[in-house]
Structure prediction request, 592 residues.
Amino acid sequence: MLDPIAAARAFLSEDPDPETRAELRELLERADGGGEEERRELVDRFSGPLEFGTAGLRGRVEAGLARMNRLVVMKAAWGVGTHLAEASARGGPDPRRQGVVVGFDGRRSSRQFAEDTAAVLAGLDIPVHLFPDPVPTPLVSFAVPRIGAAAGVVITASHNPPGDNGYKVYLPTGAQIAPPVDSAIAACIDRAPSLGAISRPSPSDAAAGGLRRLVDTTDRRVEGAYLDGLARAALHPPETTPLRIAYTALHGVGHRLVVRALARSGFAGVASVPSQCDPDGAFPTVRLPNPEEPGTMERVFALAAETGAELVLANDPDADRLAAAVPDAAGHGYRMLGGNEIGVLLADDAMEHAETAGRGKLVVTSVVSSSLLSRMARDRGVFFRETLTGFKWIMEAALEGEAAGQAFVFGYEEALGYSVGPLVRDKDGIGAALRLAELARHLKGRGRTLLDRIDELHVAHGLSHPVPWSVTLPDREGRERIRVAMNALRSRPLERIGASPVVRFVDALVGEETVDGKRSAVELPRSDLLTFQSADGARLTVRPSGTEPKIKFYLELLGHADRPTEVASVRTRLEEEGQAFRRALLERLGLN
Prediction:
């Protein structure tokens, strides 16, 4: 382990940012003066580096090796560029010929981190295709293969708290990096020299040398091509049926493209929350910019009520996720659709209407998402793949399926992430918003609603009821409590889910499953994830979050309804059973 005080002083000697230098100098002075809280803070920030994994980097914006700041970002950029150059020498894409796409969202320091990345890459003689203004993450993913770049970088922390930022890297396909590329980049970052030894030409010098090329978002090569691609892949032609929509970008970057995409599909007069349309990293009107958090949707719900909206749409700040709500069937305001509900609605639509020129359709989801999709695919003769959580795995499965001759039409994970086909090789909250609006309009024209269709799917394929929850445990102490809880479940696995005995236990960290007491290897990428499955089909998956200080629990209970009118009562019963199980498990783990 690093000596935190020595590491802090070394960091201070290199840090190019006067703001974080001043912050760290004050923290060190207070620690030297005997401040125990400040010493603990230094230990948390400097006991080790911010880990670079398949989700890249993500953390609070402040001084420290385990934080997001200019020094950490520039060394990460050096590691990415060095890895690309070394991989090119072994036959990989040539970054000095193809360049790297760099984009950023509207968060604190995002523009600066993007400029720092561009400067470091230019110093390695790697041209940068730089978006000059904040853009949605899916547009960066789309731009990488569209431009023909060797890689992409986007500065974003997605739906994390306002004080966070992050650094995500894309492959030439536009998909997120996956093992072993992440480890190779991390090893290069570890080799990064002192900042003084890293060349960083000025923007004007880089541009003069052909190493800085701005991506014009109005260029048909990128933004126009993206919107054209969404239009070509429409599952339903524009209809005359009107549909009133209320939308919020939650102070993020989605507004302009969402409104343009909807207008091109014939949706007139979309109502947007005016105070949340423009990017603002302070997120002044919400406590947390995550549409799943209580209170975050208040303003768009008020606008929806005022305008009589039939569909409410919300993107997270980088527009790679989609939340949605519809009028409550009982007339009591708006009901949020769960991530699994949006997922199975969009998957059902794609399985039914996507044109694949005779190729077998493929849908992909994660192990923490609803098992309903697997039954829908089975009943319709559609190829189905299930992966670990994370869109890097979903896209890897999609690309493998396509290589085998299948047509990938949809992928999702329950945390509001959806891929509506091969146009974007990552989550796409803009494309998902358009597809959901088109489906809602199509159903309305036939006298039905999204809620009607959800109930029909549960009757036709079996009712799945998710009961997800998470426990936030920040800082070093929280990470230790998460580790202890995971180890407790490993060393003493659950014997029952409710009244039903556990018949299958999977530990993805060691690659083993235990079925009816017999242990065997299971083919899964190594991940800190545990799954328990009971005799009646219930399933619990537990994992630490890869991007937030949380331990996450995904419980799914199964039921049966003979007709749509029975679905609500079955759900109510399963919800009560799930909440009772949640309380008992949290008490057992000491997390209540």
Notes: The mean pLDDT is 95.
